[in-house]
Amino acid sequence: MRLSPDEMIFWQYGFLKLNGTIVFTWGLMFVLAAGSKLITRNLSTELKRSRWQNLLEIVVTGIEKQIEDVGLRHPKKYIGFLGTLFLFVALASLCTIIPGYEPPTGSLSTTAALALCVLVAVPFFGIEEQGLGGYLKSYAEPTIIMLPFNIISELSRTLALAVRLFGNMMSGTMILAILLTITPFIFPIAMSALGLLTGMVQAYIFSILAAVYIAAATRGRTARPEPMQDIEA
Amino acid sequence: MDNMTLIAIASIVTAGLTIALGSIGPALGEGRAVATALSSLAQQPDAATTITRTLFVGLAMIESIAIYCFVVSMIIVFANPFWNHVIAQTAGK
Fold first, then answer.
1. Rounded to whole angstroms, how far apart are CA atoms A195 and A172?
2. For B76, what's the count of Cα atoms within 13 Å in the CB-facing half-sphere?
3. Contact residues, chain B, for A163 at CB < 8 Å
4. Contacts of A212 in chain B (CB under 8 A)
5. CB-based contacts of A95: which residues, under 8 Å, 6+ apart?
6. Do B56 and A204 touch (CB under 8 A)?
7. pTM for the whole thing?
8. Quick count: other Cβ atoms within 10 Å of Cβ A200?
9. Helix (H, G, I), strand (E, B) or coil at A225
10. Residue of chain B nearest A212, judged by CA positions
C-alpha cells in the first residue's frame, strides 16, 4: 500500500526523480495561475460581467472577510499569502474527484513546506508591523522566563500544522484504499464525499490558523483581545 | 520466539493500542466542545459566526491529537524502522 504520492514515480533518470507529489503540485500551480490569469484578463466594472469574474469576486471577498474577522485590519496586505494557502490546499483536496489523482498535500514534504512558509511569514509580517525590537520583545512576554516556551511553541505549532494537514489527507486516501478492498460498491463513494468535506475544512483551518498566528505577531502579545462587535446587536 | 516475531507482535499490538487509546481523549474533548458550542449558539444566535469559527479552530486543535496518534500508528504499521532493521539484518546474514 502506498503511504503518500511520493512513491508514485513518473519519470526517473539516475538521481533525478519526478514523483507524484511534484507533478501534481506543479499541475495545481499551473491551474491556479493560468485560471486567475485567464479570468482577470478582461475585468469589467459594469453591471454586466462574466460568470467567472463573479466566481473569483465571491472567493476573494469571502477570504478577505474571513481574514478581517480574525483580527487583521488590512486584509488586502495578507490575502496574497493566506488566500494562496487556502486556494492551494482547497484545490488539492477538491481535485480528488479526478480519477488517478492523489492530493499532493498527502505527502509530508508538501505540508512541511507550507508550514515552513507560515513559520517564515509570521516574523516577516510581525517585524514589518512592529519593528524588529518590538517583535523580538514579544517573545519575552509576559516575563523573560517565558522566552524558551514561546520559542518552543513557535516551532511546535509549525510541526502541528504540517502533521495535521498531512494526517488528514493521508487518512482520507488510506481509508478509501482499505474500503475498496472490503466493500468496493457504495461505501467508498460516501467516504470520498466525506473526504471532500474534510479537505475543505482542513484548507479553512490551515489558512485561519496562519491568519491567527500572523494576527498574534502583528498585534503584540499583550494587546487586549479584539472587541466583539457582533455580539451587542 | 525469536526477535523477529517479538518485534512483529509488539508493533501490531502497539499500533492498535495507539489509535485505540489515542482516540478516546480527543473524542471526549470534541464532544464536550461541540455540546458547549451548541448551547452557546442557542443562547446567542447573533454571535454565530464568531462561535463557529472558534469552534472549528478549536476542533482542529483537538483533532490533531488524534491525527498524531494515527500518523504514529501508520508509521508503526507501514514504515516501521525496527522491522526494517531486522529485515536488513536477516537479508545481510
1. 6
2. 19
3. 64, 67-68, 71
4. 57
5. A24, A28, A101, A103
6. yes
7. 0.82
8. 15
9. coil
10. B57
> Does the interface ipTM go beyond 0.90?
no
Cα gap A123→A129, rounded to integer Å: 10
Domain positions in chain B are 21-92
Q: Which residues in chain B have Cβ-Cβ distances shorter than 8 Å to A230? A: 46-47, 49-50
Q: Which three cell numbers stand for residue B78?
A: 507501514
Structure-block grid coordinates of residue A217: 505577531
CA-CA-CA-CA torsion for A75, A80, A83, A89, nearest 10 degrees? -150
* Burial readout A154-191 (b: 16 or more C-beta within 10 A, e: otherwise): eeebbebbbbbbbbbbbbbbbbbeebeeeeeeeebeeb
Task: Name the CATH superfamily housing domain B21-92.
Answer: F1F0 ATP synthase subunit C (1.20.20.10)
CA-nearest residue of chain B to A167? B67
Neighbours of A31 (CB within 10 A): 12
CA distance A32 to B74: 32
Grid coordinates given for A42: 478582461
Which of these, A201, A195, A82, lies nearest to B63 by C-alpha position?
A: A201
Q: Within an 8 Å CB–CB cutoff, is residue B52 touching chain A? A: no
Q: Which tens digit of pLDDT belongs to each residue from B69-81?
A: 988 898 888 888 8
Q: How far is B71 from chain A (nearest CA, A)?
A: 6
**Span A149-167, pLDDT tens digits:** 888 888 988 988 998 899 8
